[in-house]
Amino acid sequence: MTEKIARFFAENRPATPCLVVDLDVVARNYDRLSGALPDAKIYYAVKANPAPEILRLLTGLGSSFDTASVPEIEDCLAAGATPDRISYGNTIKKAADIRRAYELGVRLFAFDSEAELEKIAANAPGSRVFCRILTSGEGADWPLSRKFGCDPEMARDLLLRAAALDVVPYGVSFHVGSQQRDLAQWDAALSTTAAIFRDLEEKGVALRMVNMGGGFPTRYRTDVPGTDEYGFAIDEALRRHFGNRIPETIVEPGRGMVGDAGIIQSEVVLISRKSANDLRRWVYLDIGKFGGLAETMDEAIQYPIETERDGGPAEPVILAGPTCDSADVLYERAEYRLPVDLRIGDRVAIRATGAYTTSYSAVNFNGFAPLQAYYI
Amino acid sequence: MTEKIARFFAENRPATPCLVVDLDVVARNYDRLSGALPDAKIYYAVKANPAPEILRLLTGLGSSFDTASVPEIEDCLAAGATPDRISYGNTIKKAADIRRAYELGVRLFAFDSEAELEKIAANAPGSRVFCRILTSGEGADWPLSRKFGCDPEMARDLLLRAAALDVVPYGVSFHVGSQQRDLAQWDAALSTTAAIFRDLEEKGVALRMVNMGGGFPTRYRTDVPGTDEYGFAIDEALRRHFGNRIPETIVEPGRGMVGDAGIIQSEVVLISRKSANDLRRWVYLDIGKFGGLAETMDEAIQYPIETERDGGPAEPVILAGPTCDSADVLYERAEYRLPVDLRIGDRVAIRATGAYTTSYSAVNFNGFAPLQAYYI
Questions:
Q1: Taking CA atoms, which of A287, A376, B126, B251 is between 20 and 30 Å from A4?
Q2: Domain-wise residue ranges, chain A
């Protein structure tokens, strides 16, 4: 917990549950990432946390933005970003939304299928397009399905087809999977990407950009490689596969930019056992899967949890949320331990919750209000 | 699709995605359930769909209400329900919320642990309390964790303890699991409940009420027993286990009351393949896991999906939502088939979506607005 956040909690004692984000940490993350990848352009993945305070800060620092929808594009523009700094990175877009983005000045679009490419050519003529390829997602904590990207062979065909349409075949993108801890995954994806670049060059199409997506992790309960290590591994892989003809590069950090900048404070609503000889206590918090902690799905993301009583003896607990939904259990298998003398009414700090929390929270499930947030 | 909903879509052509609920179907469901269980009091589980239109309708029909939070209690009061028709059925409540409910006139509270019982006694003196027991949830489609309820033995002890506090030990509740298709589950739970009643009577505590929870299913892709069959099975089980001393009974239908009353209309945003020889097409809709279809988690709830091109040849598809989250895949293993000539821009009807959709939708994940709904 940063001093600034600790002071905010102490002075304001805000109603729980609430998220507090330290904007200084976001700025530091931006600086670290641009330091580690000095040749890459940073496109912040707005979906991770679209708060205007974060968008304004990053606009000021020189960031560009990866957006998923027209409202996200409008939010970036409202924060002061010019449209040339905005990528419409969703591969699933309505024709009307592509047109609207184009009218707003956006000229960089993602696709991974023929139909999407045709929609872009028809509604955003002259724009630069990049094709997303499938990667395995091995080593990532948050599941990477086959939802995005296409086979490299199909990517080649589609980029060639793009050259015949009224768009600029600009590059290739991939995503190694969110919270990716295996540095070799970037190498594998860059190897495939370089092969596509060579093939297309032979056919007279010069691609210029590699979008390496996100995947940069936040430290949750276990250590992750440092930003510098990612920078070094990526730099090395670029040299290995592109030699002295390294293309423009883009990265799209979301979690890696804001994850560790935020802390959720929550209250213990109930502590109980299911029977007299139950070995594990149930600890129910006033935030759960539907109030902002959706990424606890299948216990994928395991946030560090701190209490004011840490230090003494602790025992295993099952953690759950406050709704009447039986699926609203946070951690049952992940072996969390909390202090034996934890009490109902205690506050707990759920760390590294700056990303994928506020915007995930349900409108009013069970009558609970969406997660309140403060950006300081 | 009811005629009323079909006409609404045809005449209004509302922007997608949107949910339309036919209130006549809700009224019909209420009548059927009260017909099938004439001796039970119906407490509608507000969390299933807290729309004021539904609450007002059910208030008028004579329903009572099972609520999960103070805002849900306030919604019921605003809809015209008197506090004696409201149960605070969440077993996880903050002391301040219990007090607030008490101030609003609520006198019926759930608990499943000693700490919760003590909170109720301290903050809602004189109220009736019922203890929820654990059940297996076997046969239910939506997962029933061990989150709610306690061992029958502990329930006995706690109800005895309640008699010594300033509350009325009123009864026992259980929940057989949502979308429960095995009628025998009520029998098993009622057998356990009757044993608790007998034990407490021996100790001089006369319980008066059995809260049989919800679990009444909606017809999704597969047939479910009819309301009458549930009524018959429950009636028989009550007689078997309680003889001629059948207690007051409560049921808490949510899904069974509003599930089949609603239809979501969604637009096909993209149809694609991942490679030239991909066997299954991906169909991306403008609604997904984070826009209201949260119950597709692990493909638990499988909504019937209809298109305007049904009837001709169909082929297997993978269905996914519109967000940039790779977890936003609706059905990959559930073997959905859609027409071969389905086109981008087509509208599809996602049936039986009146329950657990609107209130589950995310505030603005990926910039997408929460699910719009119309009650007609």
A1: A287
A2: 23-258, 260-375
Token duo for residue B281: 């097409």
Nearest to A107 by CA among A133, A80, A78, A82: A82
Count of other CB atoms within 10 angstroms of residue B201: 12
Other C-beta atoms within 10 Å of B41: how many? 18
Check for a shared fold between A23-258 and A260-375.
Answer: no
Q: What's the token pair of residue B89?
A: 């059925």
The pair of three-digit structure tokens given for residue B311, joined into one six-digit string: 């009837």
B244/chain A closest Cα distance in angstroms: 31
**Which ipTM was obtained for this model?**
0.95
CA–CA separation, B176 and B185 (whole Å) = 6
Chain A residues within an 8 Å CB radius of B92:
269-270, 284, 320, 322
| Superfamily (CATH H level) for B24-258 | Alanine racemase (3.20.20.10)
From CA A254, how far away is CA B82, in angstroms rounded? 48
Buried b (16+ CB within 10 A) or exposed e, A266-276: bbbbbbbbbee
Measured over all CA atoms, what is the biggest interatomic distance in chain B, rounded to whole angstroms? 75
Q: Alpha-carbon distance A301 to B280, whole Å?
A: 30
Q: Please state which architecture CATH assigns to domain A23-258.
A: Alpha-Beta Barrel (3.20)
Name the residue facing A92 among B75, B134, B284 (closest C-beta).
B284
Beta bridge mates, B320: B284, B329
A260-375 topology per CATH? Lyase, Ornithine Decarboxylase; Chain A, domain 1 (2.40.37)
Helices (H), chain B: 3-12, 23-36, 52-61, 70-78, 95-103, 114-123, 152-164, 184-202, 227-242, 255-258
- Give B6 to chain A, closest Cα distance, Å: 24
Could you tell me if B116 and B154 are in contact, meaning their C-beta atoms sit under 8 angstroms apart?
no
Is B150 known to be catalytic?
Answer: no
Task: Give the pLDDT of chain A (376 residues) as one tens digit per residue.
Answer: 899 999 999 999 999 999 999 999 999 999 999 999 999 999 999 999 999 999 999 999 999 999 999 999 999 999 999 999 999 999 999 999 999 999 999 999 999 999 999 999 999 999 999 999 998 777 777 767 789 999 999 999 999 999 999 999 999 999 988 888 888 889 999 999 999 999 999 999 999 999 999 888 888 988 888 888 889 999 999 999 999 999 999 999 999 999 999 999 999 999 999 999 998 999 999 999 999 999 999 999 999 999 999 999 999 999 999 999 999 999 999 999 999 999 999 999 999 999 999 999 999 999 999 999 999 9
